[in-house]
Amino acid sequence: MNKETAKIRKILVPTDFSPFSQRAIDYGAFVAERFEAKIVLIHVIESAAYSVTDTMIVVNHEAALKATAEALMENLEKQCIEKGMAVTTRVVSGTPYREIIKEAEQEEADLIIIGTHGRTGLERFLLGSVAEKVVRLATCSVLTVRSPEMPK
Prior knowledge:
The structure is a single chain. The chain is an alpha/beta fold. The protein has a single domain, classed as HUPs (Rossmann fold, 3-Layer(aba) Sandwich). It is built from six helices and seven strands. The two termini are about 30 Å apart. Strands 5-2-1-6-7 form a five-stranded parallel beta sheet, with helices on both faces.
């Protein structure tokens, strides 16, 4: 396969700002450079960002989470631009795997590169796997990136 047949023009890279997703960003940069592709970084704020205080006041944390995520995304964007990459960023709210898939379709992404936390057994069953759901449900190709620290 060569550059002409692959035609990777746009790569969606979800990030939760963890080392796992940073590794996916690094892979995204590598692939984007080879194919002269654009990178779209996305962070999804989970919808249930509420808590209840001891005085029964409901606190919505979404605004604070969004401000923090936007600042972190701005830093990632600057790092990518400094490396000469074409990049855009998105911060959205919702269910992570659904929003990732929706964004990939809206952006007409050719590839999603996503880090995996490597959960197994009961932990994966209880928490689910965003990467696994994206692999199963995305309409474009998906590359999962394991962390080097994960057990084999």
